[in-house]
Each structure stands twice: as structure tokens, then as C-alpha cells.
UniProtKB/TrEMBL annotation:
<comment type="similarity">
    <text>Belongs to the MOG1 family.</text>
</comment>
<dbReference type="GO" id="GO:0005085">
    <property type="term" value="F:guanyl-nucleotide exchange factor activity"/>
</dbReference>
<dbReference type="GO" id="GO:0006606">
    <property type="term" value="P:protein import into nucleus"/>
</dbReference>
<dbReference type="GO" id="GO:0044325">
    <property type="term" value="F:transmembrane transporter binding"/>
</dbReference>
<dbReference type="GO" id="GO:2000826">
    <property type="term" value="P:regulation of heart morphogenesis"/>
</dbReference>
<dbReference type="InterPro" id="IPR016123">
    <property type="entry name" value="Mog1/PsbP_a/b/a-sand"/>
</dbReference>
<dbReference type="GO" id="GO:0003254">
    <property type="term" value="P:regulation of membrane depolarization"/>
</dbReference>
<dbReference type="GO" id="GO:0031267">
    <property type="term" value="F:small GTPase binding"/>
</dbReference>
<dbReference type="GO" id="GO:0005634">
    <property type="term" value="C:nucleus"/>
</dbReference>
<dbReference type="GO" id="GO:1901207">
    <property type="term" value="P:regulation of heart looping"/>
</dbReference>
<dbReference type="Pfam" id="PF04603">
    <property type="entry name" value="Mog1"/>
</dbReference>
<protein>
    <submittedName>
        <fullName>RAN guanine nucleotide release factor</fullName>
    </submittedName>
</protein>
<keyword id="KW-0813">Transport</keyword>
<dbReference type="GO" id="GO:0060047">
    <property type="term" value="P:heart contraction"/>
</dbReference>
<dbReference type="GO" id="GO:1905222">
    <property type="term" value="P:atrioventricular canal morphogenesis"/>
</dbReference>
<keyword id="KW-0653">Protein transport</keyword>
<dbReference type="InterPro" id="IPR007681">
    <property type="entry name" value="Mog1"/>
</dbReference>
Length: 189
């Protein structure tokens, strides 16, 4: 029997969402930018990032998930040909999300070849991206689920690759997207 997880407060309680089990709040370990909430799986190399980013009004709704995916690929130094690929972009029906204030919501699935901490070794990571567009607040909520598929033996992440523990699933990510709720619009300034 699955027990229902309670929503986890985000950004001081201005937002909340159901975060999967085995999540470690990275802000308890190191400094995280004010516009991010970062969680790592306790036993795998998976991570979840909830990020408030500037609304990109020049980007059409249907192009916005790819825009952010490519922005992340640039940050990950994964923009060369063959280092990143988008496999699907899907609009989320507003009836499926709790964040009713969004003008549109999207998911994107893709892969990137990423090196951690500027290492030479590159890991293949599936990125599940959720995007909620909030033009009235000049903000977009970007949720990224990093799910490593192959970890180089030379990577600092190699130690986590064979550990036990139940990994997070796409269903965990979808539950987070579906339960994201705004409690205080003052968060957006």
C-alpha cells in the first residue's frame, strides 16, 4: 500500500510539491542560489532541481521547453553535435496540474552527455524537464529531474553508480509536477 507523501514546502513555503522519498535537501549541505531548490537522491546520482527563471516572452510556448533544455545543455557544456538530444515535448493539460496560475505547462524528455565538476569523464544523463509559464509574474518555474543512464568509471559519480536504494521514477517526477502549488504570489516580487 502506497502512503501518500505530504507536500514539501519550497521557497519558504511560497510553493509546495510532493518530493520523492530518499531526497536530501542540498541546501543543508552547501549554498544554493536563492532561485533554486535542489534535492539529491540519498543512494543514487539522481537529482531534482526546482528553479525560478525569468519569463522568456520572446519564446513561443511550444518552443519554451527546448529553449530551457538547450540553455541547460550550454551550462553543462553539452552543446556539440551528438552531446544532446530531445526525444519528446508534451503539453500538460491544465486539468492535470495544481499550479492553476500558469498560462501553459510542458514536459520535455531528452539526454545530455555531461561531465561533473568539469571532469574529462562524461556521463549520459536523461533529463526530464517540467516547465510552468507564469507571464503575469515574469517568471517560469523550471523543474529538472536528472536521471543518469551511464556513468563513466572515471567520473566522481562512479561510486554512486552501483549502490543500492530504490531510484526515483518518472512517476515520482510527474507527481511533483502535478502537485506543484502556489501559496504566496509575493514570491515573484
Amino acid at each position: 500500500m502506497l502512503t501518500r507523501l505530504p507536500p514539501h514546502p519550497l521557497f519558504g513555503g511560497a510553493l509546495s510539491a510532493v518530493i520523492p522519498r530518499s531526497a536530501t535537501d542540498i541546501s543543508e549541505l552547501r549554498e544554493i542560489p536563492d532561485n533554486q531548490e535542489v534535492f539529491a537522491h540519498a543512494h543514487t546520482d539522481q537529482s531534482l532541481i526546482v528553479e525560478l527563471v525569468e519569463y522568456q516572452g520572446q519564446v513561443a510556448d511550444q518552443d519554451s521547453p527546448r529553449y530551457h533544455f538547450e540553455d541547460i545543455a550550454g551550462s553543462n557544456k553539452s552543446l556539440e553535435p551528438g552531446a544532446f538530444e530531445v526525444t519528446s515535448v508534451v503539453a500538460l493539460p491544465k486539468s492535470d496540474v495544481s499550479l492553476s496560475e500558469c498560462s501553459s505547462a510542458w514536459t520535455l524528455t531528452g539526454t545530455q552527455c555531461v561531465s561533473k565538476f568539469n571532469e574529462e569523464a562524461r556521463n549520459t544523463v536523461t533529463l526530464h524537464l517540467g516547465l510552468f509559464r507564469l507571464p503575469q509574474f515574469s517568471t517560469e518555474v523550471l523543474i529538472t529531474f536528472n536521471d543518469p543512464q551511464s556513468i563513466s568509471p572515471d567520473s566522481s559519480s562512479a561510486a554512486a553508480a552501483g549502490t543500492h536504494g530504490v531510484p526515483w521514477t518518472v512517476q515520482d517526477f510527474q507527481r511533483l509536477l502535478q502537485t506543484l502549488t502556489l501559496h504566496n504570489p509575493g514570491l515573484f516580487g
